[in-house]
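Hi X.,

You mentioned you wanted examples for the new student's onboarding notes, showing what a folding record looks like when two proteins sit in one file. Here is a clean example. The first protein comes first, with its sequence line followed by its structure tokens.
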Amino acid sequence: MRIIQLDESTKQNILEGLLKRDPNNYTQYADTVQQIVDDIKERRDEALFAYTKKFDKARIDASNIRVTEEEIQEAMKQVEPGLLEVMKKSMANIREYHQRQVRQSWFDSKPDGTILGQKVTPLESVGVYVPGGKAAYPSTVLMNIIPAEVAGVERIVMVTPPGADGKVNPVTLTAAHLAGATEVYKVGGAQAVAALAFGTQSIPRVNKIVGPGNIFVALAKKAVYGHVSIDSIAGPSEILVIADETANPRYVAADLLSQAEHDELASAILVTTSMELAEAVSAQVEQFVAGLSRKEILEKSLENYGYILVVDSLDEAIQTANDIASEHLEIVTKNPFEVMTKIRNAGAIFIGEYSSEPLGDYFAGPNHVLPTNGTAKFFSPLGVDDFIKKSSIIYYSREALQKVHKDIEAFATSEHLTAHANSIRVRFEDEEKPQA
């Protein structure tokens, strides 16, 4: 990995380079995605089945697009028992963590005759997109479905591309069943997102769409936003490690590569106060890459977006981490909890040398659907809050409104909204009549 002595100019160049990975920059695909979305809106099932045959080589129609109970049971028999047990342990951790996020409705009554509050209501329906193809991502299934189930969403719909045989990966299907999906459909790509957003004869529409996907899925979510809610426009994966001279270079190198292997656009950055550590990590990375299965992807990722940044102080390292606002942030320093208190921008923070990033991906419990491309400055991890909505509750007695009605009327009149003022005034017009 390249080693750079960091200064403001270099930091700015790195930030600009990282932001180029934002899916919003891939406008050359936007027209194609919009055509697919419009076609699904117009031709519905007919277009959905045609795109599935074109892109996934699968013959899907109204009779087999929805996964049956028999298919679920068949899939579960194909999952290796050891993996099934691990998935169940992971589910328990994920569910326990997200149950702590559950919000309750609240009401506050006062002696003056007012009641104010907030009513928390689960969304009625949610669509979960899960990538398909040769790979299976059961961890993504669990991380997207379980918070919705904990929130109380009644209808949780998963869509995922089928294989050419018209079947869903058995591990993916098993994870969906265990996590609480109520419906699973064999469809992927931009066409699946459009179907969830607008509905077809086979797939009723949902209120919100969550889950990762390729650039076409990301742009489709952007195209349907407003017709439905979405979680975010996810970018490539990224990790940033803050480390000092006490860090184990072998551990740090392994953790950097755990994210670099995702794809060629993934980012892996070490920010350290120690040149000795920087050189040791760089050497260790080369050793690891030579023996890892995704060598070509790792090399491209590190060449494009891999950095070892050497800084003069831990405070400078912290500021750099806050500026980059990485999806995953590891702190491997002498006093990691002290450093953690100074971090403002990160999707997930991993503290200490035994809190490796894959712990969060698979098992610990916090969600691994995280803000990317600097959006950790204003976005949060996926959680129960993403699957609820809130309504304000307002009650005033006549006596309570009487005390403030002239103030409200004056405020409305100042904005030249006389109908607003009149809506309050009419309730007390009898008091304004002159007494005989």
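Then the second protein repeats the pattern, sequence line and then tokens:
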Amino acid sequence: MDRLEQISQRFQFLEASMSVGSDGADFAALAKEYSDLRPVVEQIDAYRQLLGDLEEAEAMLADPEMAELAQEEVPALKAALPKVEAALQIALLPKDAADAKPAMLEIRPGTGGDEAALFAADLLRMYQRYCEAKGWGFDLIEEQMTELGGVKEVVAHITGQNVFARLKFESGVHRVQRVPSTESQGRIHTSAATVAVLPEAEDVDIEINPNDLRIDTMRSSGAGGQHVNTTDSAVRITHIPTGLVVTSSEKSQHRNRDKAMQVLKARLYDMERSRIDDERSADRASQVGSGDRSERIRTYNFPQGRLTDHRINLTLYRLDAIMQGDLDEIVDALTADAQARLMAEMNL
């Protein structure tokens, strides 16, 4: 209760400070903290209100005239308490600083040849539709396609509210089981694609020494045929200390440079976050959302219309809707599991 009071007092202080006014940078910092605390304080107020109502109803039991009414109210209030307490616990959990950030989505085919590339293209469309449903911006930075319409590599920049918070559990190996369109005997093939979701890095998050970069311009090339782009506009940036290489192949060389730098910053930021996570926990495999992309996280079984997320043993039999971008049930379940694990760690 002392902690709840401290949070409430801090919120009131921020509210008063903002009403007085301050310089731009200071005001922005106050506004962000105020915005972050607001949902927490709302849950604190709801919890306190319920406790007050319960105390009042229990006191009414001693009043013969009010006892009958109180006997109805007390059980209902007590039944509501666990749900309100759980909501408050979740609100009090430490927030991932990257949750509110935009994200970089990277998709690449794994084992399975052409079928893997086609599945990677299906995943790209799935995420595009999910972003459209959320009202998020979806901007392709790098897109290399195969002759059959599969994806060799794609990098997209996604902007909107709580983008990384909703997409961060998608990082990993996605496996598909289905009959390829090129399979004449109807045999089910298994292939895979790798998804990486990285929080977008701001200048304050990561600094890059210009001397650590090698920047090359090169001729762009599209998917083939009429899509070939023959201008020398593509940009490739190599970060020499880490060996990271990023490319962007739009028509504007200046825009390509900016886009490639965005991707590079995101990858370096993700590496730094991973390094800090490693130091905090020797057993990263136990952490949901740790971003470990070496394991299979999900299987899409088309013949059975089934999706299974192996991290939480969730199986859904509505694969068609999921491939159309209906991902909220999966994301909600993964978020709830991550919150439960975090609460368990805090109670140790």
